[in-house]
Amino acid sequence: MLENKDAAKVSFYSQLKEEVYTFIDKNSLIPQGNKLIYVKAISILLAWLAAYAGFIVAVSFSAYLIASLCLFTACFFMLAMQMGIMHDASHKSFGNKKSVNGILSQCLAIAGASATLWYHKHVVSHHSNPNIPGSDPDIESGGIFRFNSTDDWKWYHRFQHWYAVPAYSLLVLKWVWVDDVKELVHNRYKIRGKDRTKAWVEIVFSRVIHMAIYIILPLAVGLNPWLVLTFYLAHWMVLGAVLSLIFSLAHVNTVQDFPESKDGFENDWALLQLATTANFATGNKFLTWFIGGLNYQVEHHLFPRISHQLYPQIRKIVREYCSKHNVEYLEYSTFKEALFDHFDHLRILSARPA
After folding, report:
1. Domains of the chain: which residue ranges?
2. How far apart are CA 281 and CA 245, in angstroms?
3. Which of 3, 165, 186, 221 could anchor a disulfide with 60, C-beta 3.0 to 4.6 Å?
């Protein structure tokens, strides 16, 4: 898929990086920590807090319809918080101060997960090995899905394009209540010393915060335990489905490669990123705001230390540079196109291999 022979003759990424940062300097742009990103973050945090407070007040008055509307509004801003604040902070691209990124990456605690484990799982493992089976945890499903042709086929995979969304909806629940603890117990990411201790502290602290917000406080204001469970599952299953789909559209469609290893990409790390990553709906400004620029996955994978607010401006440079070097730039024009292709990919791989 990737025509990398010409690009391998030169330092593909170093020249691209120089062009991008020259553009940033020339236009007096700030790679991290500009004022607009802080305004966005404060707005999202306040909106989430207001929606959650509205949910608690509505529940205390048994106004369940209003409570439902407030809860799903809170779910919307929770998604915006994790994708537009926490995600950038974990890549150290939110602010230009380590302390700011460190604090904001802990937004993940509200969702009930460890920021340290997320860093090693996503920032280190996924970004270093995108779509490489056995090395990229983001494409592992424990056999539930067959995402690439080298995965073993099971009889139930023939239905995977039908059960995908229900299964995706369980992502966050599994992450919070199973994955973090399991991965740290087995120390999958070889976390040592203070970072390992920090991860254990985060696991305990984040679950306490998570349970206090979504279980204990609703019970304390008089909500029936069954309704607490219903609201809890509805919130996190919707959030899990949306998160899964957003990340899947960038990597698990018919156009991306699933290389068995990094062999063939030794000359330039960027060529691997381009072969395994696709943009979608970059013209949709609302979507770009909502998901923190994750529809600009190509730019994000090439420049994870640059704020997502600059991705629309550097996209043209990256596209033209790829064209000049005969390197394929993967992109879907709309969200719908990418979404349909994802389910096409699942359907194609649902067939039993010959």
Report:
1. 5-348
2. 14
3. 221
